[in-house]
Amino acid sequence: MPDWLRYPVELIDLALAAAALDPAAFERASANRAAALTVLALPFLAGASELLGQAYVLAARRVSRAQAAASLVTTGLVYVAGAVVWGAATYALLAAARPGPPPDAAILGVVAVSYAPRVLSLLTIAPYYGEFVNRALDAWMMTCVALGLWVVVDGALWAVLACAAAGWAVSLSTRRVAGLVLGPAARRLGVITARRRPHV
């Protein structure tokens, strides 16, 4: 297999395994810092996919191809930032709750690979049941996070889930504040990001 093809193939394999709730996928994603950084591509793809799922927004604004591409990249980067904040907040809470938490890269790897179901956000474009699909993908992603943290964190399940939920809330709040601060400037440049979603 050519080297340039190895990374996307391995990423797809890992994403499918995580979406199937395979514990080994979370162990691979949290193995080291390099693995955690590698799977940050999944939040990026999830953000771009979600904006494509709201393609009517791009169509209504009649944006140019360059603006559409910039919007996809921006939304993807927003999701990457959200995953990093979520991982950092969860790590900080775990460190405060119990001695000897796992490495921060392990937590980030779990959170990032758990965005695998969200790569299907394009399906939310469907009329009538798009919102149901959105909520189902949210639940699927949160299930991935819960299982992944339970796999890599040696602790009580309720404490792990509480830290993950609190980290998600911090990440969501950060994203909303960033949207309020940066949104006007982005709109002036014709850059559009996904809206209305209750997750990061």
Automatic annotation (TrEMBL):
UniProt name for this protein: Yip1 domain-containing protein
Keywords: Membrane, Transmembrane, Transmembrane helix
Spans traversing the lipid bilayer: 34-57, 69-94, 106-129, 149-170
